[in-house]
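Pair request: fold both.
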Amino acid sequence: MRDRPRSGRRGAILLEAIVALAILVFAGAAVVAALAQSFHAVEAALRADREMEEASGYLDVVALWPRADLDRHLGDREQGPWRMRVERPLSTVYEVTLSDSTGMRQLLRTRLFLPREGADAP
């Protein structure tokens, strides 16, 4: 009769081992999924940072444009991978906005002061 309790206990130990292994598998899968999600998040952040650097470089160039070039670019237009909007709220102030190509996500916005040249300059 001693064999029965032992074989019953062996079955319970085997069941416990299988349950522990299943828990380890699920935990491992969760860790792998979290790592994959973190990797994709870092990738997206690096892409956004690169996009912002490129847009900032382009806006630096636009800031050097003379009044005539800014006047020629008034309104919305495609500008490379971006949509650029140039507005002139005052005669000496230009507002330049860079958005993504759809125009839905604004990347950068700046105001430029360009004093008038010639006789009517202060």
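--- second member of the pair ---
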Amino acid sequence: MREHKILLVEDNPVNQNLVESLLSGRGYLLLKREDAEQALILIRESPPDLILMDIHLPGMSGLEATRILKSDPETKMIPILALTALAMKGDEARVREAGCNGYLSKPIRYKEFLDKIQEYLDQDKGSVHGT
């Protein structure tokens, strides 16, 4: 069975550590980047199975990075889950409009978080990378 590669794009070290602790021991390879520009480089070099994208990042926003990824035939099939503290009415619609496949709000509720990740990885079944 292939190890799933998940990219976390998050600039907050506390949130990085939380996600890492939740995913460790579950057979996932977690890659981390603190800004969208570096994440885009990594994604093009070694596409992950799933991207967890913070929305408020230094420099380019997570929504802008998502639009870039979803407009590129090479990366448009990679599922992207918005991981954000946005919780206002209409925020979920905004992240979906940008191309995010799903939405997880902070603070992270660990069971919902892990279930959502597994749901998107199960949908993939290797279709993104042909495995």
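Observation on the second member. Confidence is low (pLDDT under 50) at residues 126-131.
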